[in-house]
């Protein structure tokens, strides 16, 4: 699954630079995660780095983007493939 930042986000700016897929950007009110780019850090790290650094624990699984480990790895390969 891709991840989702909830309304509890305090805009502390620590998650955005940690995302190896550039999936996190500032939205209108809080940071947002692009589910098409989020691999939960599969291919890069053992656990999602945004969740590791989030001080308010406002990042959770996005129920609208159900993906298994294989699908996340395939997405990772598409993202890092040379253009």
Describe it for me?
The chain is of the alpha+beta class. It has a single domain (about 5-80), classed as Alpha-Beta Plaits (2-Layer Sandwich). Helices cover about 20% and strands about 15% of the residues. Strands 1-4 form a two-stranded antiparallel sheet. The model has no long low-confidence stretch (mean pLDDT about 95).
Helix content: 10-25%
Mean pLDDT across residues:
96
Order of helices and strands: EEEHEH
**Global structural class:** alpha+beta
Q: State the CATH class.
A: Alpha Beta
Indicate the CATH architecture. 2-Layer Sandwich
What is the radius of gyration? 12 Å
Strand content: 5-15%
Main sheet strand line-up: 1-4
In CATH, the topology is named Alpha-Beta Plaits
Distance between the termini: 25 Å
User: How many structural domains in the coordinates?
Assistant: 1
The coarse silhouette is globular
Sheet of most strands: 2 strands, antiparallel
